[in-house]
Amino acid sequence: MARFDRRGFLKLSGGGALAATTGGMAAILASGRAPAFAQATTLHWLRWNDFVPASDQLLRREIVGECEKALGIKLNLETINGNDIQARVTSAVQSGSGPDIVCVLNNWAQLYGESLTDVSDIADEIGKAQGGFYETSKTVANDGKKWIGVPWCIVGLQIAYRKSWFEEIGYSGGTFPETWDQYRDAGKKLKAMNRPIGQTLGHTFGDAPAFCYPYLWSFGGKEVEADGKTVVLDSPATVESVKFMLAFWKDAHDEGGLAWDDSNNNRAFLSGTCCATLNGASIYIEALRKPDQYKTEKGTVMKDDILHAALPKGSGGQFSYHVPFTNMLMRYSKNQDAAKKFLRWIHSNEVYEKWFVSQKGFSVGPTTEWEKHKIWNEDPIMLPYKQAARTGRFAGFEGPSTRKAAEVVTKYIIVDMYAKAVQGMRPEDSVKWAHSELLKIYGS
Q1: pTM score
Q2: Are residues 285 and 369 in the same domain?
Q3: Where are the beta strands (DSSP E) in 262-415?
Protein backbone atom coordinates (compact mmCIF):
# COMPACT_ATOMS: atom_id res chain seq x y z
CA MET A 1 0.00 0.00 0.00
CA ALA A 2 1.35 3.43 -0.92
CA ARG A 3 2.94 5.49 1.80
CA PHE A 4 2.32 9.19 2.16
CA ASP A 5 4.89 11.74 3.27
CA ARG A 6 4.31 15.37 4.10
CA ARG A 7 5.54 16.62 0.74
CA GLY A 8 3.29 14.27 -1.17
CA PHE A 9 0.32 15.22 0.96
CA LEU A 10 0.85 18.92 0.32
CA LYS A 11 1.10 18.30 -3.43
CA LEU A 12 -2.14 16.33 -3.44
CA SER A 13 -3.79 19.03 -1.34
CA GLY A 14 -2.70 21.81 -3.60
CA GLY A 15 -0.19 23.14 -1.02
CA GLY A 16 3.46 23.92 -1.57
CA ALA A 17 6.09 26.55 -1.20
CA LEU A 18 5.22 30.15 -2.02
CA ALA A 19 6.62 31.11 -5.41
CA ALA A 20 9.60 33.35 -4.89
CA THR A 21 9.03 35.65 -7.84
CA THR A 22 10.35 39.18 -7.70
CA GLY A 23 6.88 40.71 -7.86
CA GLY A 24 5.46 38.35 -5.26
CA MET A 25 8.27 38.94 -2.79
CA ALA A 26 8.06 42.69 -3.31
CA ALA A 27 4.35 42.63 -2.53
CA ILE A 28 4.96 40.71 0.69
CA LEU A 29 7.68 43.11 1.81
CA ALA A 30 5.49 46.09 0.99
CA SER A 31 2.62 44.72 3.05
CA GLY A 32 4.74 44.41 6.17
CA ARG A 33 3.29 40.95 6.91
CA ALA A 34 5.09 37.63 7.15
CA PRO A 35 4.43 35.20 4.27
CA ALA A 36 1.41 32.90 4.79
CA PHE A 37 2.32 29.23 4.81
CA ALA A 38 -0.17 26.35 4.37
CA GLN A 39 -1.96 25.44 7.58
CA ALA A 40 -1.98 21.78 8.58
CA THR A 41 -5.41 20.15 8.39
CA THR A 42 -6.85 19.09 11.75
CA LEU A 43 -8.73 15.79 11.71
CA HIS A 44 -11.01 14.77 14.59
CA TRP A 45 -11.15 11.00 15.27
CA LEU A 46 -13.63 9.79 17.91
CA ARG A 47 -13.07 6.34 19.46
CA TRP A 48 -13.94 4.33 22.56
CA ASN A 49 -11.80 4.15 25.68
CA ASP A 50 -9.92 0.96 24.86
CA PHE A 51 -9.98 -1.87 27.36
CA VAL A 52 -6.26 -2.25 26.61
CA PRO A 53 -4.81 1.03 27.95
CA ALA A 54 -1.51 0.50 26.15
CA SER A 55 -3.29 0.89 22.81
CA ASP A 56 -4.72 4.31 23.65
CA GLN A 57 -1.31 5.35 24.96
CA LEU A 58 0.29 4.26 21.69
CA LEU A 59 -2.18 6.30 19.64
CA ARG A 60 -1.60 9.41 21.73
CA ARG A 61 2.15 9.16 22.20
CA GLU A 62 3.22 7.88 18.79
CA ILE A 63 0.54 7.70 16.13
CA VAL A 64 -0.66 11.29 16.54
CA GLY A 65 2.86 12.62 15.98
CA GLU A 66 3.64 10.23 13.16
CA CYS A 67 0.43 11.24 11.42
CA GLU A 68 1.47 14.86 11.28
CA LYS A 69 4.97 13.99 10.06
CA ALA A 70 3.74 11.61 7.37
CA LEU A 71 0.62 13.41 6.18
CA GLY A 72 0.79 16.95 7.46
CA ILE A 73 -2.43 16.24 9.37
CA LYS A 74 -2.91 17.23 13.00
CA LEU A 75 -4.85 14.39 14.56
CA ASN A 76 -7.30 15.31 17.31
CA LEU A 77 -7.86 11.96 19.01
CA GLU A 78 -10.84 11.82 21.36
CA THR A 79 -11.81 8.73 23.36
CA ILE A 80 -15.06 8.21 25.28
CA ASN A 81 -17.00 5.35 26.85
CA GLY A 82 -18.20 2.98 24.15
CA ASN A 83 -21.78 3.18 25.39
CA ASP A 84 -21.77 6.96 24.76
CA ILE A 85 -20.68 6.86 21.13
CA GLN A 86 -24.13 6.52 19.58
CA ALA A 87 -25.44 9.60 21.34
CA ARG A 88 -22.47 11.59 20.04
CA VAL A 89 -22.99 10.37 16.48
CA THR A 90 -26.70 11.14 16.56
CA SER A 91 -26.03 14.66 17.83
CA ALA A 92 -23.34 15.24 15.21
CA VAL A 93 -25.57 14.06 12.36
CA GLN A 94 -28.43 16.28 13.50
CA SER A 95 -26.21 19.35 13.83
CA GLY A 96 -24.14 18.64 10.73
CA SER A 97 -20.88 19.03 12.61
CA GLY A 98 -18.65 16.96 14.82
CA PRO A 99 -15.88 14.38 14.47
CA ASP A 100 -14.62 13.73 10.94
CA ILE A 101 -14.19 10.01 11.62
CA VAL A 102 -16.00 7.93 14.23
CA CYS A 103 -15.04 4.39 15.18
CA VAL A 104 -18.30 2.59 15.99
CA LEU A 105 -19.08 -0.89 17.29
CA ASN A 106 -21.28 -3.77 16.23
CA ASN A 107 -23.40 -2.99 13.15
CA TRP A 108 -24.06 0.62 14.17
CA ALA A 109 -22.71 1.95 10.87
CA GLN A 110 -25.83 0.56 9.20
CA LEU A 111 -27.92 3.05 11.20
CA TYR A 112 -26.15 6.05 9.71
CA GLY A 113 -25.65 4.96 6.09
CA GLU A 114 -27.22 8.07 4.55
CA SER A 115 -24.93 10.31 6.60
CA LEU A 116 -21.69 8.55 5.65
CA THR A 117 -19.20 8.93 2.83
CA ASP A 118 -18.74 6.06 0.40
CA VAL A 119 -15.31 4.62 1.24
CA SER A 120 -15.39 1.67 -1.17
CA ASP A 121 -12.12 2.70 -2.80
CA ILE A 122 -10.27 2.53 0.52
CA ALA A 123 -11.92 -0.65 1.80
CA ASP A 124 -11.37 -2.46 -1.49
CA GLU A 125 -7.66 -1.56 -1.44
CA ILE A 126 -7.22 -2.79 2.12
CA GLY A 127 -9.15 -6.00 1.52
CA LYS A 128 -7.14 -6.89 -1.57
CA ALA A 129 -3.83 -6.10 0.09
CA GLN A 130 -4.52 -8.00 3.33
CA GLY A 131 -6.14 -11.29 2.38
CA GLY A 132 -9.77 -10.21 2.35
CA PHE A 133 -12.13 -9.09 5.10
CA TYR A 134 -13.82 -11.44 7.51
CA GLU A 135 -17.50 -11.89 6.78
CA THR A 136 -18.43 -10.10 10.01
CA SER A 137 -16.43 -7.02 8.99
CA LYS A 138 -18.07 -6.96 5.59
CA THR A 139 -21.53 -7.53 7.03
CA VAL A 140 -21.44 -4.51 9.31
CA ALA A 141 -19.54 -2.06 7.08
CA ASN A 142 -21.10 -2.72 3.67
CA ASP A 143 -24.73 -1.95 2.81
CA GLY A 144 -24.81 -4.42 -0.08
CA LYS A 145 -23.88 -1.82 -2.68
CA LYS A 146 -20.95 0.05 -1.21
CA TRP A 147 -18.68 0.29 1.82
CA ILE A 148 -20.16 2.73 4.32
CA GLY A 149 -17.21 2.32 6.66
CA VAL A 150 -13.68 0.97 6.80
CA PRO A 151 -13.50 -2.08 9.11
CA TRP A 152 -11.01 -1.48 11.92
CA CYS A 153 -10.90 -4.69 13.96
CA ILE A 154 -12.91 -7.43 15.62
CA VAL A 155 -12.79 -8.07 19.36
CA GLY A 156 -13.03 -11.81 19.89
CA LEU A 157 -15.29 -12.99 22.71
CA GLN A 158 -14.47 -16.10 24.72
CA ILE A 159 -15.26 -17.28 28.22
CA ALA A 160 -12.48 -16.40 30.64
CA TYR A 161 -12.51 -18.88 33.51
CA ARG A 162 -10.58 -19.82 36.63
CA LYS A 163 -8.71 -23.01 35.80
CA SER A 164 -8.17 -24.15 39.40
CA TRP A 165 -11.81 -23.62 40.40
CA PHE A 166 -13.11 -25.70 37.51
CA GLU A 167 -10.55 -28.38 38.32
CA GLU A 168 -12.03 -28.58 41.82
CA ILE A 169 -15.38 -29.67 40.33
CA GLY A 170 -13.93 -32.16 37.86
CA TYR A 171 -12.80 -30.22 34.80
CA SER A 172 -9.13 -31.11 34.81
CA GLY A 173 -6.47 -30.50 32.18
CA GLY A 174 -7.90 -27.20 31.04
CA THR A 175 -11.24 -28.68 29.99
CA PHE A 176 -14.48 -26.68 30.12
CA PRO A 177 -18.20 -27.55 29.98
CA GLU A 178 -19.20 -28.32 26.40
CA THR A 179 -22.98 -27.97 26.72
CA TRP A 180 -25.31 -25.53 28.46
CA ASP A 181 -26.51 -28.28 30.78
CA GLN A 182 -22.94 -28.97 31.84
CA TYR A 183 -22.20 -25.27 32.26
CA ARG A 184 -25.31 -24.82 34.39
CA ASP A 185 -24.32 -27.78 36.58
CA ALA A 186 -20.76 -26.48 36.97
CA GLY A 187 -21.97 -22.99 37.72
CA LYS A 188 -24.41 -24.29 40.32
CA LYS A 189 -21.61 -26.08 42.16
CA LEU A 190 -19.34 -23.06 42.03
CA LYS A 191 -22.07 -20.63 43.09
CA ALA A 192 -22.61 -22.77 46.17
CA MET A 193 -18.95 -22.03 46.92
CA ASN A 194 -19.55 -18.25 46.44
CA ARG A 195 -17.95 -18.42 43.00
CA PRO A 196 -20.84 -17.71 40.59
CA ILE A 197 -20.74 -17.12 36.85
CA GLY A 198 -20.57 -13.42 36.03
CA GLN A 199 -22.66 -12.33 33.05
CA THR A 200 -24.33 -9.06 32.15
CA LEU A 201 -27.90 -8.80 30.89
CA GLY A 202 -27.68 -5.02 30.88
CA HIS A 203 -27.76 -2.34 28.21
CA THR A 204 -24.12 -2.45 27.26
CA PHE A 205 -22.61 -2.77 23.80
CA GLY A 206 -20.36 -5.82 24.06
CA ASP A 207 -20.80 -8.67 26.49
CA ALA A 208 -24.61 -8.63 26.70
CA PRO A 209 -25.46 -9.08 22.98
CA ALA A 210 -22.38 -11.24 22.47
CA PHE A 211 -23.82 -13.67 25.03
CA CYS A 212 -27.55 -13.50 24.29
CA TYR A 213 -27.47 -13.86 20.51
CA PRO A 214 -25.31 -17.04 20.37
CA TYR A 215 -27.31 -18.42 23.29
CA LEU A 216 -30.54 -17.90 21.31
CA TRP A 217 -29.08 -19.48 18.16
CA SER A 218 -27.75 -22.48 20.07
CA PHE A 219 -31.30 -23.42 21.01
CA GLY A 220 -32.43 -23.03 17.40
CA GLY A 221 -34.01 -19.59 17.79
CA LYS A 222 -33.62 -16.76 15.28
CA GLU A 223 -34.94 -13.27 14.65
CA VAL A 224 -36.07 -13.45 11.03
CA GLU A 225 -36.13 -15.77 8.05
CA ALA A 226 -33.50 -15.59 5.33
CA ASP A 227 -35.61 -13.02 3.47
CA GLY A 228 -34.72 -10.52 6.18
CA LYS A 229 -38.38 -9.59 6.55
CA THR A 230 -40.35 -12.40 8.16
CA VAL A 231 -40.08 -12.19 11.97
CA VAL A 232 -39.98 -15.66 13.54
CA LEU A 233 -38.61 -14.97 17.01
CA ASP A 234 -41.70 -16.33 18.78
CA SER A 235 -40.97 -20.03 18.39
CA PRO A 236 -40.79 -23.11 20.66
CA ALA A 237 -36.99 -22.96 20.41
CA THR A 238 -36.84 -19.37 21.66
CA VAL A 239 -39.29 -20.07 24.48
CA GLU A 240 -37.21 -23.07 25.53
CA SER A 241 -34.06 -20.91 25.62
CA VAL A 242 -35.80 -18.44 27.93
CA LYS A 243 -37.12 -21.17 30.21
CA PHE A 244 -33.64 -22.67 30.51
CA MET A 245 -32.21 -19.22 31.26
CA LEU A 246 -34.50 -18.82 34.28
CA ALA A 247 -33.04 -21.81 36.11
CA PHE A 248 -29.54 -21.22 34.75
CA TRP A 249 -29.54 -17.65 36.03
CA LYS A 250 -30.86 -18.50 39.48
CA ASP A 251 -28.73 -21.59 39.97
CA ALA A 252 -25.40 -20.43 38.61
CA HIS A 253 -25.11 -16.65 38.11
CA ASP A 254 -24.33 -13.56 40.10
CA GLU A 255 -27.83 -12.08 39.84
CA GLY A 256 -26.45 -8.56 40.12
CA GLY A 257 -25.28 -9.00 36.54
CA LEU A 258 -28.58 -7.55 35.36
CA ALA A 259 -27.11 -4.09 35.97
CA TRP A 260 -23.54 -4.71 34.80
CA ASP A 261 -21.83 -2.96 31.93
CA ASP A 262 -18.80 -4.23 30.00
CA SER A 263 -16.37 -3.43 32.79
CA ASN A 264 -18.19 -4.81 35.84
CA ASN A 265 -17.45 -8.40 34.92
CA ASN A 266 -13.76 -7.58 34.47
CA ARG A 267 -13.60 -6.19 37.97
CA ALA A 268 -15.58 -9.09 39.42
CA PHE A 269 -13.32 -11.67 37.83
CA LEU A 270 -10.08 -9.95 38.80
CA SER A 271 -11.30 -9.49 42.38
CA GLY A 272 -12.06 -13.21 42.63
CA THR A 273 -15.86 -12.94 42.95
CA CYS A 274 -16.86 -14.85 39.80
CA CYS A 275 -15.60 -18.08 38.27
CA ALA A 276 -16.19 -17.36 34.59
CA THR A 277 -17.44 -14.63 32.28
CA LEU A 278 -17.83 -14.01 28.56
CA ASN A 279 -15.31 -11.35 27.64
CA GLY A 280 -12.62 -10.19 25.31
CA ALA A 281 -9.10 -11.00 26.41
CA SER A 282 -8.84 -7.81 28.46
CA ILE A 283 -9.15 -9.66 31.79
CA TYR A 284 -6.15 -11.84 31.05
CA ILE A 285 -4.17 -8.98 29.51
CA GLU A 286 -4.76 -6.82 32.60
CA ALA A 287 -3.70 -9.68 34.89
CA LEU A 288 -0.63 -10.15 32.71
CA ARG A 289 0.17 -6.44 32.89
CA LYS A 290 -0.11 -6.25 36.69
CA PRO A 291 0.83 -9.65 38.10
CA ASP A 292 1.64 -8.25 41.53
CA GLN A 293 -1.76 -6.61 41.85
CA TYR A 294 -4.01 -9.48 40.78
CA LYS A 295 -3.62 -12.55 42.95
CA THR A 296 -5.68 -15.66 43.67
CA GLU A 297 -7.05 -16.50 47.11
CA LYS A 298 -3.93 -18.65 47.54
CA GLY A 299 -1.61 -15.72 46.87
CA THR A 300 -0.45 -16.93 43.45
CA VAL A 301 -0.58 -14.67 40.39
CA MET A 302 -4.01 -14.58 38.78
CA LYS A 303 -2.66 -14.66 35.22
CA ASP A 304 -1.54 -18.26 35.67
CA ASP A 305 -5.04 -19.35 36.64
CA ILE A 306 -6.92 -17.97 33.61
CA LEU A 307 -7.92 -19.95 30.54
CA HIS A 308 -10.32 -19.25 27.66
CA ALA A 309 -13.09 -21.33 26.10
CA ALA A 310 -15.88 -20.93 23.57
CA LEU A 311 -19.53 -20.60 24.58
CA PRO A 312 -21.18 -24.01 25.10
CA LYS A 313 -23.38 -25.70 22.54
CA GLY A 314 -27.10 -26.37 22.65
CA SER A 315 -29.55 -28.51 20.72
CA GLY A 316 -29.31 -26.12 17.78
CA GLY A 317 -25.52 -25.99 17.63
CA GLN A 318 -22.60 -23.92 18.91
CA PHE A 319 -22.15 -20.28 17.92
CA SER A 320 -20.33 -17.10 18.73
CA TYR A 321 -20.75 -13.36 18.26
CA HIS A 322 -17.67 -11.17 18.14
CA VAL A 323 -17.69 -7.39 18.29
CA PRO A 324 -16.58 -5.61 15.11
CA PHE A 325 -15.38 -2.01 14.96
CA THR A 326 -15.74 0.26 11.92
CA ASN A 327 -14.38 3.70 11.07
CA MET A 328 -17.09 5.89 9.57
CA LEU A 329 -16.18 8.98 7.54
CA MET A 330 -18.98 11.44 8.19
CA ARG A 331 -20.47 13.09 5.12
CA TYR A 332 -20.68 16.47 6.85
CA SER A 333 -16.90 16.52 7.31
CA LYS A 334 -15.13 19.35 5.48
CA ASN A 335 -11.92 17.28 5.48
CA GLN A 336 -12.92 14.47 3.12
CA ASP A 337 -9.63 14.19 1.24
CA ALA A 338 -7.51 14.38 4.39
CA ALA A 339 -9.72 11.83 6.12
CA LYS A 340 -9.35 9.36 3.26
CA LYS A 341 -5.58 9.81 3.25
CA PHE A 342 -5.56 9.19 6.98
CA LEU A 343 -7.65 6.01 6.71
CA ARG A 344 -5.33 4.61 4.04
CA TRP A 345 -2.31 5.48 6.15
CA ILE A 346 -3.56 4.15 9.51
CA HIS A 347 -4.57 0.84 7.88
CA SER A 348 -1.24 0.36 6.10
CA ASN A 349 0.65 -2.67 7.38
CA GLU A 350 3.48 -0.66 8.92
CA VAL A 351 1.24 1.68 10.93
CA TYR A 352 -1.62 -0.68 11.80
CA GLU A 353 0.82 -3.34 13.02
CA LYS A 354 1.96 -1.10 15.86
CA TRP A 355 -1.59 -0.81 17.16
CA PHE A 356 -2.31 -4.49 16.51
CA VAL A 357 0.72 -5.59 18.55
CA SER A 358 -0.26 -3.27 21.41
CA GLN A 359 -3.58 -5.15 21.66
CA LYS A 360 -1.78 -8.44 22.43
CA GLY A 361 -4.60 -10.41 20.81
CA PHE A 362 -7.52 -8.54 22.39
CA SER A 363 -8.48 -7.51 18.84
CA VAL A 364 -7.91 -9.39 15.64
CA GLY A 365 -7.50 -7.46 12.42
CA PRO A 366 -10.49 -6.94 10.10
CA THR A 367 -8.72 -9.02 7.44
CA THR A 368 -7.37 -12.57 7.51
CA GLU A 369 -3.77 -11.42 6.98
CA TRP A 370 -3.35 -10.68 10.70
CA GLU A 371 -3.85 -14.32 11.67
CA LYS A 372 -0.33 -14.89 10.34
CA HIS A 373 1.29 -12.40 12.68
CA LYS A 374 4.03 -13.67 14.98
CA ILE A 375 2.24 -12.31 18.04
CA TRP A 376 0.10 -15.45 18.10
CA ASN A 377 3.22 -17.52 18.80
CA GLU A 378 4.03 -15.59 21.98
CA ASP A 379 1.33 -16.76 24.41
CA PRO A 380 -0.66 -20.01 24.07
CA ILE A 381 -3.34 -18.67 26.45
CA MET A 382 -4.35 -16.25 23.69
CA LEU A 383 -4.61 -18.81 20.89
CA PRO A 384 -8.42 -19.26 21.21
CA TYR A 385 -8.74 -15.68 19.96
CA LYS A 386 -6.56 -16.10 16.88
CA GLN A 387 -9.28 -17.38 14.54
CA ALA A 388 -12.31 -16.41 16.60
CA ALA A 389 -13.56 -14.04 13.91
CA ARG A 390 -13.95 -16.92 11.46
CA THR A 391 -16.61 -18.54 13.63
CA GLY A 392 -18.80 -15.53 14.26
CA ARG A 393 -22.41 -15.12 13.24
CA PHE A 394 -23.99 -11.70 13.51
CA ALA A 395 -27.24 -10.05 14.57
CA GLY A 396 -30.16 -10.31 12.18
CA PHE A 397 -29.82 -14.03 11.56
CA GLU A 398 -31.16 -15.71 9.48
CA GLY A 399 -31.39 -12.58 7.37
CA PRO A 400 -28.69 -9.99 6.64
CA SER A 401 -27.39 -7.66 9.33
CA THR A 402 -29.14 -4.59 7.94
CA ARG A 403 -30.16 -1.27 9.43
CA LYS A 404 -33.19 -2.98 10.94
CA ALA A 405 -31.00 -5.60 12.61
CA ALA A 406 -28.80 -2.79 13.92
CA GLU A 407 -31.85 -1.10 15.43
CA VAL A 408 -32.73 -4.33 17.24
CA VAL A 409 -29.21 -4.52 18.66
CA THR A 410 -29.25 -0.85 19.67
CA LYS A 411 -32.56 -1.23 21.50
CA TYR A 412 -31.30 -4.37 23.29
CA ILE A 413 -34.48 -6.27 22.44
CA ILE A 414 -32.93 -9.76 22.50
CA VAL A 415 -31.02 -8.96 25.69
CA ASP A 416 -34.17 -7.59 27.34
CA MET A 417 -36.14 -10.69 26.35
CA TYR A 418 -33.96 -12.68 28.75
CA ALA A 419 -33.63 -9.90 31.33
CA LYS A 420 -37.40 -9.48 31.62
CA ALA A 421 -37.83 -13.20 32.18
CA VAL A 422 -35.25 -13.48 34.95
CA GLN A 423 -36.92 -10.48 36.58
CA GLY A 424 -40.24 -12.30 36.74
CA MET A 425 -42.04 -12.12 33.38
CA ARG A 426 -43.37 -15.44 32.08
CA PRO A 427 -41.01 -16.84 29.38
CA GLU A 428 -43.84 -16.99 26.86
CA ASP A 429 -44.72 -13.36 27.54
CA SER A 430 -41.15 -12.11 27.31
CA VAL A 431 -40.80 -13.82 23.93
CA LYS A 432 -44.11 -12.36 22.70
CA TRP A 433 -42.97 -8.91 23.85
CA ALA A 434 -39.66 -9.21 21.97
CA HIS A 435 -41.42 -10.59 18.88
CA SER A 436 -43.81 -7.62 18.85
CA GLU A 437 -40.87 -5.19 19.16
CA LEU A 438 -39.20 -6.81 16.15
CA LEU A 439 -42.43 -6.50 14.17
CA LYS A 440 -42.41 -2.75 14.81
CA ILE A 441 -38.95 -2.59 13.25
CA TYR A 442 -39.23 -5.13 10.44
CA GLY A 443 -42.92 -4.58 9.71
CA SER A 444 -45.74 -7.09 10.03
Answers
A1: 0.87
A2: no
A3: 276-279, 306-309, 323-329, 363-364
